[in-house]
Each structure stands twice: as C-alpha cells, then as structure tokens.
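Translate sequence into structure tokens.
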Amino acid sequence: MKIEEKKEIRDRINFEISEAREQVGELVILTKPIAPDDAIGRISRMDAINTKSVNEHLLVKTQARLLKLESALSYINKDDYGNCRICKQPIPLGRLMMLPETETCVDCA
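Result follows.
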C-alpha cells in the first residue's frame, strides 16, 4: 500500500473516530434513566422508554466501532495493514475508505 493511501485512510480513521466520540457523548445523554415521576402520559412514557432502548443499543454499537477504529489507527503503520487477516490478499482501497476498521476482504467477510 502506498504512503499516500495510508495517509488518506489515516485521515479517514481520525475523522470517523471524532464523529464516533461525538455520537457517544450525545447517546450517553439520551440514555439517561427516565424518572418515574416525569409528568408525561402513559403512551408518551412507553415511547420514551422504547426510544431509550434503541439509543442504548446504538450506544453499544458505536462504542464497539470506536474501539475498532482506534485499533485500526494503531495498526495502520504495520506492513500488513490493508491485507485481509484471513486470505492475506490486499483489501481494496474503496473498502478501506468506507470501513477503515475492516480486517477482511469482501470474500472473506
């Protein structure tokens, strides 16, 4: 992989990390407990609980992606970065730009 390509991917990873950290911060606020004495109707309360549940799931997924992105950032300087962990073939640049945390090519995924 060329140095320019790695720089482009590194920039993409840093951008994705920044976005993920911002999203985690927002989701932490949205997943705070709903107090039982909040003055909302029964239906509105059920809707708020459902929305909180969806946000909790999104928070877990975003935190997991953040860890993968940080791992990819620490791994990008190694010679085998950009190669599939299974078949050892190069992962296309387009795939790495879309999913910079990926460790496998499309065929092995």
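Note: Helices lie at 3-30, 42-75, 93-98.
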